[in-house]
Design goal:
Shape: globular
Number of domains: 4
CATH class of the largest domain: Mainly Alpha
Largest sheet: 4 strands, antiparallel
Strand content: 5-15%
Distance between the termini: 35 Å
Structural class: alpha/beta
Helix content: 40-55%
Length: about 575
C-alpha cells in the first residue's frame, strides 16, 4: 500500500497540475509545526521561481482546489506561501485501518525482485567474541530483518576469520603443549585416529598466549607460519584439528549470538573463498590489472578525483600469502556464483573504510560484479564507556561479549526482582528480554555511523528512549486488554475522539515513512525513534483517558482497538530490531 504522505502528495500534485503547474511541486511532508497542522506542502516556493508568480498567489490557487476535498479538515495558507494540511478524523482512521489490515503493516515493499547479501558479524575462529563484535552483529541483524520486511530476498553471512596466521598460531601452541596428539603425527589417519577433546575456553586462552609468544619468539613465529602454509595445502592432521577448532569455536559464538537474537544463513569463512583465489588471479591477469611491487602482486585503484591517497590493493604478498583483500575479492566471486545478489551490504567498523574503497574499486575494475550491482560499506562507530573511549573492563582490558551481556542481564534481573507486577516464576526470562532490549535499543537508537556512550542506568530506565520503555508499553497494553477481556479487535471499530488518541493514530499511520527512511539510509535508528514516538503518544493517550471505565461502548471499543493497533505496530518495530516483547513487567 502507499505511504500516507504519498497519498496526500498525489492529491496535492493533482491540484498543482489542474492549475497549470508541474505535478512534482505537490510534494507533501509531515509538518514541522505539529501545533499548526499535520502536513505541509512547500511547492509554491519552487513554483514561484518557475512560473514568475508570488508564492502566495500560487498557494492560494492550490488551497482553493484542496478545500473541496472531504479528506481534509484543514487546508490553510501561511505566509509567505506554505500550504498547511490536516486530515479529518474519518480519513485518518480509514488509513490506519488499511495499515492494520495490510499484510505488511504499511511497510513499503520492493517494486521488483531483489537479492541483498548482508555480510556482518566477522568474528575470528579460536578467539572469544568481545565487545567490538557487538555493533556489527546487532546492526547487521536489524538491517537484514528490515530488508526482509520490505519484501526483498536477503542472504546473511557471518564471514568467519578462519584461514590466516591466527590458525597457525593456535595449532602451533597446541602442538607444543600436546606433542603426543595423533593429529601431529606424520602417519595421522582421520579414519582411525581420534581427535583430542578441548573446550572453547581453552581456545580463548591459547590464542592471546600464542600471539604474545610469537612476538618474542622468532622460532615459534616461524613454526606458526609453516603450519599455516601446511594447513592451507591440506596437511591431514592440521586440517582435521582445524575443523574441530572451527566446530568448537562456532558453537560458542552461536551461544552468544542467540542471546542477542542474531543468526546467520551461512557460516562461511575466508577458507571457503580459498578455492576462488586462482580464479581471481586469472581474471586480474586477463584484464592486465596485476602489477609487481616489491615482490608483491598489486592492483592500482587510485583515481584522479581522490582527495586522499588510495594505496594499491595487495593481492599476493611477497611470500605468496593472501591478505583480507584477496579473500574478500575471492568471496565476491563465490557469492556471485552462488547467489548473484543485486546488492552487497558490508556491516563493518568505520575504521575499515579504506579497505572497502580498495576492494570495491578492484572488484569494479575486474568486473567481478555487474555494473548495476551495488557494493556498500555500512560503517559504524564505536560503543564507548563513560570516559569516551572504547568500552572496556574495570581493569582496562577488552571485555568479552558474553561477560557484557551477563552484566546487563544481572542488572535487569535485580530490577525485575523489585517489581511487584512481574511473574516471579518468569523473572529470569523477563530479565533476559529486558537485557537484550537494553543493549540493542541503546545501540540502535543512535545512527550507526556515530560513536555512543553505553550508560547502564540510562539504558535500563523504564522511561525515555529505552528498550525498557517500549517493553513496558506493550506490557501495559497487555494488562489493559486482559482486564477488559478484549479479544474482538476489528479495524473498523477504530475511531478517534481526543487530541491524544488522534496523535497516537497519526503516529501509527506514519510508520511506513519511518521504515522507508530506515531502509533508504540503512539506519535502524529511524525505527527506534518511531517506536518511541508511538509509545510516547500512547502513554499520553492512556493517561488522558479512562479506557477501562469508559461508559460509552463505541468509544471504549475504539480505544481498546487503538490499544491493539499500538501493540501490533510496536511489536513489528521490535521484531525488526531483534527485540522480543514481554507479557508482564
Amino acid at each position: 500500500m502507499k505511504l500516507l504522505t504519498q497519498v496526500l502528495t498525489d492529491k496535492v500534485s493533482a491540484a498543482f497540475e489542474s492549475c497549470g503547474y508541474s505535478a512534482h511541486l505537490g510534494q507533501v511532508t509531515v509538518s514541522d509545526r505539529a501545533d499548526l497542522c499535520q502536513f505541509q506542502c512547500n511547492g509554491s516556493f519552487a513554483a514561484a521561481k518557475l512560473y514568475k508568480k508570488a508564492p502566495a498567489v500560487i498557494a492560494k490557487e492550490i488551497i482553493e482546489i484542496l478545500s473541496k476535498d472531504s479528506d481534509f479538515s484543514k487546508v490553510e495558507f501561511a505566509n509567505p506561501g506554505f500550504i498547511n494540511l490536516s486530515l479529518t478524523d474519518e480519513a485518518l482512521v480509514r488509513f490506519v485501518s488499511q495499515v492494520m489490515t495490510d499484510e505488511h503493516l504499511g511497510i513499503p515493499q520492493a517494486q521488483s525482485p531483489q537479492t541483498i547479501l548482508v555480510d556482518y558479524g566477522g568474528p575470528n575462529v579460536a578467539k572469544p567474541l568481545h565487545i567490538g563484535h557487538l555493533r556489527s552483529a546487532i546492526i547487521g541483524e536489524s538491517l537484514k530483518r528490515l530488508a526482509k520486511a520490505t519484501g526483498r530476498n536477503v542472504i546473511s553471512d557471518v564471514h568467519l576469520g578462519d584461514w590466516g596466521l591466527q590458525m597457525g598460531l593456535v595449532i602451533a601452541e597446541l602442538e607444543e603443549r600436546n606433542p603426543g596428539w595423533p593429529c601431529f603425527s606424520a602417519d595421522y589417519d582421520k579414519n582411525k585416529d581420534q581427535l583430542p577433546s578441548f573446550t572453547a575456553e581453552e581456545l580463548n586462552e591459547i590464542y592471546p598466549f600464542a600471539s604474545a609468544k610469537s612476538k618474542q619468539d622468532a622460532d615459534f613465529k616461524a613454526k606458526a607460519k609453516s603450519i599455516t602454509a601446511a594447513l592451507q595445502k591440506g596437511h591431514p592432521g592440521y586440517y582435521a584439528l582445524w575443523e574441530e577448532i572451527i566446530r568448537i569455536s562456532t558453537a560458542d559464538m552461536k551461544r552468544h549470538y542467540q542471546r542477542l537474537n542474531v543468526d546467520f544463513d551461512y557460516w562461511y569463512g575466508e577458507s571457503d573463498s580459498e578455492k576462488y583465489v586462482d580464479r581471481l588471479l586469472e581474471i586480474l591477469k586477463s584484464k592486465n590489472l596485476l602489477e609487481e611491487s616489491e615482490g608483491a602482486l598489486v592492483v592500482q585503484v587510485a583515481e584522479e578525483t581522490d582527495k586522499n591517497p588510495c594505496p594499491p590493493v595487495i593481492i599476493k604478498k611477497s611470500d605468496d600469502s593472501n591478505i583480507y583483500a584477496t579473500t574478500d575479492l575471492a568471496t565476491i566471486i563465490q557469492r556471485q556464483q552462488d547467489f548473484a545478489p543485486q546488492n552487497y551490504w558490508y556491516v563493518v567498523d568505520n575504521r575499515q573504510s579504506l579497505h572497502f574503497i580498495q576492494v570495491f574499486r578492484c572488484a569494479r575494475k575486474a568486473e567481478l560484479v555487474p555494473e548495476d550491482t551495488t557494493l556498500e560499506h555500512l560503517g559504524f562507530g564505536t560503543m564507548n564507556g563513560s570516559d569516551g573511549k572504547p568500552y572496556k573492563t574495570r581493569d582496562g582490558g577488552v571485555m568479552q561479549l558474553g561477560d557484557f551481556i551477563q552484566t546487563v542481564y544481572e542488572a535487569a534481573f535485580e530490577r525485575v526482582g523489585q517489581s511487584e507486577f512481574s511473574d516471579k516464576e518468569k523473572q529470569a526470562e523477563i530479565a533476559e528480554k529486558i537485557a537484550v532490549a537494553t543493549i540493542k535499543f541503546g545501540d540502535l537508537i543512535n545512527h550507526r555511523a556515530k560513536d555512543y556512550i553505553f550508560d547502564m542506568d540510562k539504558f535500563l530506565a523504564s522511561e525515555g528512549k529505552t528498550g525498557s520503555f517500549l517493553l513496558y508499553t506493550i506490557a501495559r497494553i497487555n494488562s489493559i486488554l486482559r482486564k477488559a477481556e478484549f479479544d474482538g479487535f476489528q479495524p473498523q471499530d477504530l475511531a478517534v475522539f481526543t487530541d491524544s488518541d488522534r496523535d497516537t493514530a497519526l503516529k501509527i499511520a506514519l510508520s511506513g515513512e519511518a521504515f522507508q527512511m530506515a531502509f533508504a539510509e540503512r539506519a535502524p535508528n529511524y525505527i527506534c525513534e518511531n517506536a518511541y514516538q508511538i509509545a510516547s503518544a500512547f502513554s499520553k493517550f492512556y493517561h488522558d483517558n479512562h479506557i477501562l471505565t469508559e461508559k460509552d461502548e463505541t468509544k471504549r471499543r475504539a480505544w481498546l482497538s487503538l490499544c491493539v493497533s499500538v501493540k501490533i505496530m510496536l511489536e513489528k518495530h521490535l521484531d525488526i530490531l531483534g527485540i522480543e516483547p514481554v507479557e508482564l513487567m
